[in-house]
Amino acid sequence: MSEPPVLQLGQRLRQLRQERQWSLDEAAKHTTVSKAMLGQIERGESSPTLSTLWKIATGFHLSFTALVTDLSVASTEPNPKASNRVISDDRGIDVVTLFPYDPLVGFEVMYLRLEPGSQTQSDPHEEGVLEHLMILEGELELFIDGAWIRLKQGDRVKFAGDQFHVYRNSGETPVVFHDIIHYAKSSCRS
């Protein structure tokens, strides 16, 4: 039986840090995640939020999916998305890796579902990162360039991911969308 995802993430984080020969202090400086939180994650004592996972990936110059893909227990569910679910501490937010980062094309694709009242914010990703959203169901509020915009089913938007941005569902029904993240050739490693 495989270990719980939170322990797998802790092992992955420790391995990444050791490969770079970073102390927890150095990793905290690169990721802007506190030394205490990084230690808790490495020991499997904490399941980080999506925002924290993004900070770690950015600080280690990794794509988001390179950090989180394959951190799951074996699934007996017929739904193939179940085995690619990102484990985080965010309530009301479901993130599934559809296509992990591919260095040949420089992108990854994720499925996100935000329940009513849920929100997730993201600090700037590495320079040159672009995000492409396609709204499949519901209405998403997106904070970019210092303003909120409302996106409805069928809407698409592209924006620079190297700026602070927020996804929010203020509606009464879930919001479902695809997030295609494109990395500049020099910005990350798989």
UniProtKB/TrEMBL annotation:
<dbReference type="Pfam" id="PF01381">
    <property type="entry name" value="HTH_3"/>
</dbReference>
<dbReference type="InterPro" id="IPR014710">
    <property type="entry name" value="RmlC-like_jellyroll"/>
</dbReference>
<dbReference type="GO" id="GO:0005829">
    <property type="term" value="C:cytosol"/>
</dbReference>
<dbReference type="InterPro" id="IPR010982">
    <property type="entry name" value="Lambda_DNA-bd_dom_sf"/>
</dbReference>
<dbReference type="InterPro" id="IPR050807">
    <property type="entry name" value="TransReg_Diox_bact_type"/>
</dbReference>
<keyword id="KW-0805">Transcription regulation</keyword>
<dbReference type="Pfam" id="PF07883">
    <property type="entry name" value="Cupin_2"/>
</dbReference>
<dbReference type="GO" id="GO:0003677">
    <property type="term" value="F:DNA binding"/>
</dbReference>
<feature type="domain" description="HTH cro/C1-type">
    <location>
        <begin position="13"/>
        <end position="67"/>
    </location>
</feature>
<dbReference type="GO" id="GO:0003700">
    <property type="term" value="F:DNA-binding transcription factor activity"/>
</dbReference>
<dbReference type="InterPro" id="IPR001387">
    <property type="entry name" value="Cro/C1-type_HTH"/>
</dbReference>
<protein>
    <submittedName>
        <fullName>DNA-binding transcriptional repressor PuuR</fullName>
    </submittedName>
</protein>
<keyword id="KW-0238">DNA-binding</keyword>
<keyword id="KW-0804">Transcription</keyword>
<dbReference type="InterPro" id="IPR013096">
    <property type="entry name" value="Cupin_2"/>
</dbReference>
<dbReference type="InterPro" id="IPR011051">
    <property type="entry name" value="RmlC_Cupin_sf"/>
</dbReference>
